[in-house]
Amino acid sequence: MSTPVQLALPAWIAGSSDVQEQIRKRVAGNLSELDRQLARLPSIERLKVEGGWYAILRVPALQPDAQTVLALLEKGVWVHPGYFFGMPDSGWLVISLLPPELEFSQGATALVDYFRTDQ
Predict the structure, then answer these.
(1) Residue 109's closest CA among 47, 32, 40?
(2) Which has the closest alpha carbon to 101: 28, 50, 19?
(3) Cβ neighbours, 10 Å, residue 11
(4) Residue 25: which pLDDT band, with cuts at 50, 70 and 90?
(5) Which pairs count as long-range contacts for 23-29, CB under 8 Å and 24+ apart, including other chains?
(6) Which of 14, 34, 68, 92 has the fewest Cβ atoms within 10 Å of its own Cβ atom?
(7) What does the alpha-carbon distance between residue 94 and residue 57 come to, in Å, rounded to a whole number?
(8) pLDDT at position 118
(9) How many domains is the chain partitioned into structurally?
(10) Which helix (H) or strand (E) holds 32?
(11) Of 106, 102, 103, 97, nearest to 54 (Cα)?
(12) Residue 14's domain spans which residues?
């Protein structure tokens, strides 16, 4: 570690609780918004969040996840295919709960609309 980093470390650690609280609030708010949006679409199941800032979705396995991810990307929705996380090639998406709330809400709406209309 460089000297500037070593010198800054005590201040970073002292301020970490503020950042952690901001992250906790954003993740909790986005998870709540995701659940609200998914209530409109019973064909998608959200797995229990056991930690971290990702949500895992079980989606209809109508095509490989890579194709679903690309189709969603064209609609402005960024998700990860489940196979990035060791899941099968089809039927799983992983989404970050860290984006700003408005962007996340818009993305969740577009995701739900995609599975309501494009499948």
Answers:
(1) 40
(2) 28
(3) 9
(4) very high
(5) 23/53, 23/98, 26/97, 26/98, 26/100, 26/101, 27/53, 27/97, 27/98, 29/101
(6) 14
(7) 6
(8) 55
(9) 1
(10) helix 16-38
(11) 97
(12) 3-117
The CATH code of the domain that includes 22 is: 3.90.1150.10
* Cα–Cα distance measured from residue 21 to residue 9, given in angstroms and rounded to the nearest whole number: 19
- pTM, two decimal places: 0.85
Query: SS3 of 46, please?
Result: strand
Contact 63, 69 (CB under 8 A): no
Q: Which residue has the tokens 């989404």?
A: 95
Q: In this structure, what token pair is assigned to residue 24?
A: 């906790």
Strand-pairing partners, residue 81, are 93
DSSP letter assigned to residue 84: G
Local structure of residue 95 (DSSP, 8 states):
E
Q: Decide if pLDDT at 119 tops 70.
A: no
The rounded distance, in Å, linking the Cα atoms of 52 and 103 is 19
Q: Is 72 helix (H, G, I), strand (E, B) or coil?
A: helix
- The pLDDT tens digits for 41-81 are 989 999 999 888 999 999 998 889 999 999 999 999 999 99
Query: What are 5's two structure tokens?
Result: 């980093």
CA pair distance 61, 6, nearest whole angstrom: 49
